[in-house]
Amino acid sequence: MPEWLYEAGIGEARAALVHDDQIIEAAIELDDGSALKVGLVARARLVELLPGRRGRVVLEGGEALINHLPTGITQGASLTVEIVREALPETGRAKLAKAVPTDLAPCSAPTLYERLVATGLPVRSPRAHEPDALEAAGWSELLDEAVSGEIVFPLGALRLSPTPAMTLFDVDGAPPLETLAIAAAHAVASAIRRHGIGGSIGIDFPTIAGKAQRNAVAAAIDESLLQPFERTAMNGFGFLQIVRPRPRVSIPEILRADPVGAAARATLRTLERTPPTASRRHTLPAAVHSRLMARPEWLAEVARRTGVVHELESA
Fold first, then answer.
1. Same domain, 165 and 192
2. Cα 192 from chain centroid?
3. CA 109 → CA 116, 196, 247, distances in Å?
């Protein structure tokens, strides 16, 4: 039976849904001070009206765009809103979170752990001194996929490329092309779930002649990818587009938006699992060392959890 592995890490919480010793779904929740998480219900003030019953609201913790405003509402009015999409990183300036009006009572957003429990599947939290179950299931490989974009499957490889417009998958492999494309469709569906990718997703398959063959590739997407989603048919050039809900940032977006922060958090995970008898001196890349020195509370938490004060040096 699938089970969630959950770690309340330093700087981030992380989780993976593991089945047959493989990660089929994963999530990272940053401890970055962001208050506008999906599911937050709070009072807000409308500071700007936009066309189409849209606007911008300010609430404790930041700003959000809002859709479906009540008819007749005026700028400066207060209302209760629910966050339905978190802020998304983009080059230059992040996209604001999205909200909708609600009659619900104000409440905090569910934590990652609470979301896992709500799935009804078992949740296990391995301790740092126990065998590294998350790593055994392929955590490092998952992070490598997210950062490099290289995803290998039995008949070929995918190249994952997040862009401002959409997340792109390019398929590469040897003929026969129809067999390759169907295998790639299953691999793309698995990668989308594994990395929590939403929004617009484009897949550049090999060009396949024949409508029946192209329909077979599209059917492989329908068979493998969890609902909800919409998709186009594969066109004559091998391109197919998928649109999925995008309430949160995907793992590739998290890691690529702040690679130094990702490396710093990975270092903290390693330090937490370093046996007390091992060397306490560690040489780190200069940028990672600087980031950790800027977060003394993270280092204090490592010392509290392990009972060891590590000596970190810059390379």
1. yes
2. 10
3. 13, 19, 13
- Please, what's the b/e burial string for 73-91 (b: 16 or more CB within 10 A of its CB; e: otherwise)? beeebebbbbbbbbbbeee
Among residues 148, 218, 143, 163, which one has the least CA distance to residue 188?
218
Residues counted in the chain: 315
In the listed set 183, 213, 244, which residue is the last one of a domain according to the structure?
A: 244
Q: Are residues 160 and 240 in the same domain?
A: yes
Q: Which residues contact 20 (CB under 8 A, 6 or more apart)?
A: none
Condensed to tens digits (0 to 9), the pLDDT of residues 159-174 reads 999 988 899 999 999 9
Segment 169-195 shows an average pLDDT of: 97
Distance CA 33, CA 120 (A): 28
- How many domains does the structure of the chain reveal? 4
Same domain, 235 and 147: yes
Shared-domain flag, residues 96 and 117: no
The pTM for the full model equals 0.93
Helix (H, G, I), strand (E, B) or coil at 192: helix
> pLDDT tens digits for 119-140?
999 999 999 889 999 999 999 9
Tokens of 142: 């998952």
Cα(299)–Cα(262) distance, integer angstroms = 15
- Three-point CA angle 65, 70, 73, nearest 5°: 85
Q: Are the C-beta atoms of residues 246 and 85 closer than 8 Å to each other?
A: yes
Buried-state track 2-29, b at ≥16 Cβ within 10 A, e below 16: eebbbbebbbbbbbbbbeeeebebbbbb
CATH number at residue 208: 3.40.630
Count other Cβ atoms within 10 Å, centred on residue 250: 24
Considering the domain architecture, whether residues 8 and 119 belong to the same structural domain is answered as yes
Residues 6+ apart with CB under 8 A from 131: none
Evaluate whether residue 128 is within a structural domain: yes
Give the burial class of 141: count Cβ atoms within 10 A of its Cβ; 0-12 exposed, 13-18 middle, 19 or more buried: middle
**Do residues 76 and 160 share a domain?**
no
The whole domain housing 291 covers 258-314
